[in-house]
C-alpha cells in the first residue's frame, strides 16, 4: 500500500467514523435557539441527542451482520442514503417530537460509518498496525469537535439552525462519492453468513464468549461514554450558567477537543514503547482521579469558567488513549466475526452514551455537577470493570492449570 493510498484510506475511514460525532457536535450551540423556535425547553431538545444515541446503539447491531453478509460497501451506501434523507427531515421539522424522531432515523443511517470503518481496519491492515490506525482515525474524529460546534454556532447565529442539517447532508453526500471512487472494497460478501435471527444471535454469542472482547468492550465502552456526559451538559453549563455566547461556546468546545487530538498523537508515540493493555489501565486510573477532583471542585464552588475548562481539558486528554486502545484490544481476537464484533462494541459504547446523556438531562439542577459527576462515574466504572475482568480471567486460567495437572496425575 503506497503512502498516498494509505493517507486517503485513513481519511475516508476517519470521515466515516466522524459522521455521527459531527452530527452530535454541530447542533449543540443551537440548543437554546431550537428550543425557542420549537416552543419547548432545552431539556426536551436534549432528548433529541438521546434519541440519536439510541438510534446508533440499535443501528450498529443491525449493520454488523449485514456488513459480514453483503460486504462493506452496499450497507454503507444504504445507510448513508438514509442519513441524508433524515437530515432533510430534521431541517424541515416543526416540533421537538418530530425532531427527536428524525434524529433517531438520522442515527440509524449514519451509524453504519462507525461499524464499517472499524471492520475495514481489520480488513485492510495487519493486526500489529491496527492500534496505530485506530489512533489516526481517532485523530480525524477528534478534529470534528474543533470544527463542528464552531461552525454550528456561526450558522445558528447568522443564518438558522435548520441549515446545520442541510450542511450535514451535503458533507455525507461527498463522503458517499469518496467511498465509491477511492475506498477499497475490503472483505467481500460472504453468503455463508446467515441473516436468520437464530444465526445472527449465535454469531453475537460467539463474540461475547471471548473474554478479551468482553472485558475491553465493557471497560472501554463505559470509559468512552464520558464525553457524552460532557456533550449533553456542556451547552447548558457554559451558555446558561457561565453566560457565554453561541460563538464562544463553539470556541470552548474546539479548545477542549485539542485535548483529545493531542492524546491521540501521544498514543501513537506511546505504542512504540508500551502495550495497549498498559496504556488503557494507567489512563483510566488518572482520569478517575481527575474526575473525583472535578466533583469536589464543582460541589465546593472552587471553579470559575477558566479553571473548570482547564480541569476538563486534563480529563479529556484520556479519551484519545482509551478509545483506540480499547477498540484494538476488543477486535484483536476476531477475523470471521469482525463486523458483528464491531457492531456490538459500537452499540455498547453508544448505548452507554445514550444512558449517560439521559441521566445528565434527568439530573439537571442548574449546576455542572450532573455533567462532571457522570464523567467521573464513567472512568471509575471502566477502571473497576477492567481490573475485575482481568482478575476473573487470571483466576480461571490458574484454575484450569490446576485441573490439568490433577487430570495428568490421575
Question: Nutshell version of this structure?
Answer:
The chain has 410 residues and is an all-alpha fold. It has helices at residues 3-25, 31-37, 42-70, 73-92, 96-110, 112-124, 130-158, 162-182, 197-208, 211-223, 226-241, 246-270, 276-299, 305-316, 319-331, 338-362, 369-409.
CATH architecture label: Up-down Bundle
Classification by helices and strands: mainly alpha
Please trace the helix and strand order, writing H or E for each element: HHHHHHHHHHHHHHHHH
End-to-end Cα distance: 55 Å
Low-confidence spans: none
Largest sheet properties: none
Let me know the number of strands: 0
- Counted up, domains total 1
**If you average the pLDDT, what whole number results?**
84
In CATH's first tier, which class applies? Mainly Alpha
Helix content: over 70%
Main location: membrane
GO molecular function, one term: sodium:proton antiporter activity
Organism: Dyadobacter psychrophilus
Protein name: MFS transporter, DHA1 family, bicyclomycin/chloramphenicol resistance protein
